[in-house]
Write a structure and sequence with these properties.
Elements: E1 6-10, H1 15-27, E2 31-35, H2 38-47, E3 55-59, H3 70-77, E4 82-86, E5 101-104, H4 107-114, H5 119-138, H6 146-149, H7 162-168, E6 183-184, H8 200-211
Parallel strand pairs: 1-2, 1-3, 3-4, 4-5
Antiparallel strand pairs: 5-6
Helix pairs in contact: 2-3
Length: about 210
Amino acid sequence: MERCRKAIHLRTGDRATDEAITSWLERHGVESVGCADPFEACCLALRQPELAPDLILIGVDWLAPDELGVHEYLHQTWPAAAVVLYSSGPAGAILAGGPATIVHRSAESLQRMLAGPPEALLTALRDAARPAADSAAWRPQPTLPPDTASSAGDPADAAPGAAVACGAGAPAAAVPRPAPDGEQTQAAPRTPLAQTILTREELAALLADDDG
């Protein structure tokens, strides 16, 4: 089982839940860095990218709607980390996951998480990613008959209307739906992160003002 050594915990959930998660990390010997709000978490990512956590935990109960993008910012800084979004209240209904993200929307789901070791989260995400990779690796590759291979790249040989047909059958964009508690989800394309929260340059400017 993959060892979980470091975690970043954005303590913006229900206070009792935040405390339970902090105790859980300590009990399993995980070095944890706590952040009180999204700005502090973004500053940490900007100033100490070398932290390289294995796990990022974010409570959403006390996040404003325009602060929910913080998990994307942290995931872009540390793409190898597993991300857990959690809520024990109504705020969990609006949670949407993404790559390497597990969502817990209820107290019962969180209790199941806390009953196991942090390493179980890393294993679950790795195992979930493996079937997709294996499926792609074993997908049969089409081959052309020898007598047609030489003309495969010639646009003049394409059937009339082929280009139009490709676009006509394209499905409409799917509307993302919340996944069941404790499951990892793949998010639909989102608004660029620079348009949802501060960019690195803006954070750097704010930090420079604070230092001055």
